[in-house]
Amino acid sequence: MSFDLVFFGGTGDLTWRKLMPALFQAFRHGKLPPGGRILAVARDERSDAEYRQFIRERFPEVDSAKRPSDEEFARFAELLHYRRMDLSQPEHYAGLKQWIDARGADTAVLYLATSPYLFPVVCAQLGAAGLNGPKVRVVLEKPLGHDLASAQEINRVVRAAFAEQQAFRIDHYLGKPAVQNLMALRFGNALFEPLWRRESIANIQITLAEGLGVGTRGDYYDTTGALRDMIQNHALQLLTMIAMEPPSTNDADAIRDEKLKVLRSLKPFTPESVARDVVRGQYKAGTVGGEAVCGYLDEVKVPAGSHCETFVALRTEVQNWRWAGVPFYLRTGKRLAGRHAQIVVNFREVPHPIFPGSARANKLVIKLQPEDGLELHLLAAKGSAQGELLAPVSLDLDFDKAFASERVGAYERLLMDAIAGRLNLFVRSDEQEQAWRWVEPILKAWEADPNGPRPYAAGTWGPPASSAMVARDGCTWDEEQ
Questions:
Q1: Annotated binding site
Q2: CA neighbor of 108 nearest in space, from 130, 129, 132
Q3: Which residues are annotated as a binding site for NADP(+)?
Q4: Annotated binding site for substrate
Q5: Are residues 244 and 391 in the same domain?
Q6: Residue 235 gets which letter from DSSP?
Q7: Quick check: is 418 in a domain?
Q8: What's this model's pTM, rounded to 2 decimal places?
Q9: CB atoms inside a 10 Å sphere around CB 447
Q10: Residue 69: what pLDDT?
């Protein structure tokens, strides 16, 4: 299948840091369909050769395992092209259409790796230029809006130019192998489904923790914050995949219908429940990995006195028959004690313990990063001379070891799906808008709160209030167990 893949924002960080390395890996793995062209567009003048050199110079900054040899890059670079475009000029879109139509590839994928405020401009211009035919797909990178109103406006402009089946709203967490294995775990095996309900599960925790601070992106992050950056999209998508009902088929809309039902079933927030069930924090100076680091307010480009949150923890429930009364705890933050993303399913204790020490409940840990695998925590008899005392043991499945071949990265998988037209791992507009609708009461409550976020030292797990919140339910975060 021949294809043209066009990156708007072709010289931006996202393109050279994430997208081009992912495409190279697909090329290296033999997964990139033959007969493809990759076109980068941006405002400055440069030739194809100059752009290829631009990318080659930046590849050493990516993961060493993904760096190409000179010979590998030379072969990959034959696919790369560059075109100058001013995204406000209609004639430049007409020129792009001529470039695409001249070859007549089977499909054209237009990836908007630009600032979100440009999405409406670009989509409107693409529609006006006729770059929205049946063979065209448009990929929209997050954040998709700043609030519900802006998300709805972006979707209105996108829908005016493209059918819903042509719009690929990307959330790179959905491309992670462990997330795909979450679907396989639930719907490809009979083992867990009878237990996947309120009668067996005590609570579910989703943690997306980062050890890094905001770096040089302080100005961008300060207008976004942890709630918009991580909870509204990544964390809620993970929650829907954990809580959704079994879809009727593996069809994209069957899956997304069930995810939407979960979002609509989330317990809505009120000003009172925001104060009780949501904790926001901001990191202060501390130590991460043995290195002293500054606080958020001392980071580059962060305005003085900012109330931007760098940490969020919240409690919610899915109000349906399967999950009624089961707390879902979501947590994310920067400058935390470590970098890891995981989902912890804590099962209920046995109804009548007959062994000493058997009060400890079982749990399933789904590890997303940096490791990729599953841990099932059980109790087993130690067989000591003092009697059958129980001790915790774990069954640990490392997917990298279980599958000998190199795992496909998130962006690699999603780019290949976009080229092939597979929508299963992309977000539909009604999902996205419902997620914004659910977080908006939190944003409004914070706007009315003069106290701002709670401080926490860099290198810790966030404000103590986060632990106190789950303790009200008799629970602890996973690292405290």
A1: 43, 86-87, 142, 172, 176, 210, 229, 334
A2: 132
A3: 43, 86-87, 142
A4: 172, 176, 210, 229, 334
A5: yes
A6: I
A7: no
A8: 0.93
A9: 9
A10: 82
CATH classification at residue 75:
3.40.50.720
Sorted by sequence, the CB contacts under 8 Å of residue 99 that are 6+ apart come out as: 39, 83
Pair 336, 261 in one domain: yes
3-class secondary structure for 431-472? HHHHHHHHHHHHHHHHHCCCCCCEEEECCECCCHHHHHHHHC
User: What b/e sequence results for 60-71 when a residue is b if at least 16 CB atoms lie within 10 Å of its CB, and e otherwise?
Assistant: eebeeeeebeee
CB 312 within 8 A of CB 280: yes
Residues 240 and 389 grouped into a single domain: yes
Q: What's the token pair of residue 363?
A: 């749990």
Residue 336 falls within a domain, yes or no?
yes
- Classify strands 3-8 and 373-381 as parallel, antiparallel or unpaired: unpaired
- Specify whether 130 is located in the same domain as 181: no
Asked if 206 contacts 330 with a C-beta cutoff of 8 angstroms, the reply is: yes
Residue 416 identity:
M
- 37 and 141 assigned to the same domain: yes
Mark whether 392 and 326 lie in a shared domain: yes
Is the residue at 423 inside a domain? no
Say which CATH number the domain at 345 has.
Answer: 3.30.360.10
First to last CA, the chain: 51
- Contacts for 19 with CB less than 8 Å, ≥ 6 apart: 7, 111, 113, 411, 415
Last residue of a domain, one of 109, 144, 169: 169
Q: Return the amino acid letter for 55.
A: I
* β-bridge mates for residue 374, sequence order: 366, 397
Give residue 372's domain range.
174-407+437-480
Whether residue 272 is found in the same domain as residue 330: yes
Q: Which of 81, 92, 234, 340 is catalytic?
A: 234
Residue 156 lies in a domain: yes
Domain count of the fold of the chain: 2
**Is 92 among the residues known to form the active site?**
no
pLDDT in tens, 94-109: 999 999 999 988 999 9
Residue 359: the pLDDT is 65
Q: Which residues of the chain have pLDDT under 70?
A: 61-66, 356-359, 383-388, 403-407
Residues 117-130: tens digit of each pLDDT: 889 999 999 999 99
Give the residue from 136, 169, 202 where a domain finishes.
169
What pLDDT is stored for residue 383 in this prediction?
A: 66
